Each structure stands twice: as C-alpha cells, then as structure tokens.
Amino acid sequence: MDRRAGAGAGPAGRRPGRAARDNSRPGRAAGEDSRPGRAAGEDSRPEEAAGPAVAAFDFDGTLSRRDSLLPFLVFVRGAAATARAVVAEGPRFGRVLLGTASRDEAKEALVTRLLSGAEAGQLTESGRAFAERLVARGLRPAMRHRLQWHRQAGHRVVIVSASPTIYLATAGARLGVDAVLATELEVDADGRLTGKLAGRNCRGDEKANRLRAWLDASAPERSERPPRLWAYGDSRGDAEMLALADVAVWVGWRRYWPGTTTRS
Fold first, then answer.
1. Contact assessment for residue 233 and residue 242, using Cβ atoms and an 8 Å cutoff
2. What is the pLDDT of residues 181-209, one digit of tens each?
3. Residue 21 belongs to some domain of the structure
C-alpha cells in the first residue's frame, strides 16, 4: 500500500488570469509599495471584478534564501554521506545539464541513495526540527513580510514547491499559510521510505496543475467569480504557475522586481 511521508496538503484549480502590468521601479523590494495607495505589482483590475484573493508562493529561492533540499539531506544524513551521494550521482546531474536526463530522475536518485529505508515517523520528526530552523534563519525578510501582508489583508496563502512536504508542512504551519502543495515521498506498508517520489515532482506544469486543483477544491461555496491570483517565483520551474496569475512577481537573486510577469 502506498502512503506519503509528511502531512501534505491537498490538490487544486483556476482559470488562467490576466498577468499584471509592471507598475514598479526596478530594485524595490517585493511587497514594498511602489505607488501611494497601491501595493507593488498590483494590476489595474478593480477588486470587485475578482473573487477572494489568493497568493501562491514558491519556496526555494523565493521565500527561502536558497535551495532547501540539499541542506535537509545534510541535516538528516550528515555532510559526508550527502557529499558521497552527490558525487555518485554526478554523471546523472551532468546529463541533466546537457538535457539528456530529467531533473525529476536526478532528484529521485539522490533521495533514494540517502533516504531509502528510513523510518517515516523519525524522518518526519527530523523534518519538523529542520523546518523550525529554516523558518527562523533561512527566509528572505522581504518575502516573509510580503506573505504576512497577504495574510493580514485576508488573502488565502498557499506554498507551491518542488521540495518535500516532509519539512515544508511544518514550515507552512509556522508561516500560517492555508495549504502546502509540495513533492511527496513514497512510504511503504512498513512505514519506511522507498526512496521514490509519490506522484510527480511539484515543478513546472505540475505546480500549475496542483494549484488549479487546489483552487477548484477550496473555492468558497456559491462564488461566481474566480479568485484574484498573485504568484511569486524565482526560476523557470515557476513559469507555468506565474502564467496563471493576475499579478505575477519574479523574485530575482539579487533584486526583487515586483509586478513583472513571465508573459507579454
């Protein structure tokens, strides 16, 4: 019987929205107002033309300062074991760069080397401890502020990430989000990780699919209008999710570019 490690949050949906016009100056932190009375990146569609607002955040490199999976593997397996696994999978990672192997395959191979056979309950406890540290020290202050701005405005907030639910569920709970849509790790009938992913890696089109499904499943009853969707991401793996948004915000490595969109 297949089960999933961690406390994942459900699936999702929505009609593609109209991407926002860039109303901001480069170099201003995401979430900072670029004009009096209007939040950075806000489009010109009247609020009454849309349903309740939703903000979808990528995690790695968007909310967090950097990738979180490798630090998690080091946290639970140690630096030496993780380094050996990365070296062993080096040729596969090289093929990913050349476009002859998929990121999903490389990720699953690394997880298999390091987590296959791990007891799911113990790993979940380790994931909680890692998430506490990650939320305390590893987030971008401006993006954490932006997430809290959405919450204070009464918007529903969801994290959509390729990283595992086994620690992101706790991170999401600490941040007060409504749902975490992330990659699930497969657990066997004996309660141990198989090393495989349970379902697809939550990246690229899968992010958009999961978000759509969650939006459909969580839509308020009798709502006749789709929600006004904000989306935040930092990589090509977020492009499909940002393309759904009414307000799409690209979070750069050194600067934030509020209101920019991945589509023309």
1. yes
2. 999 999 999 999 999 999 999 999 999 99
3. yes
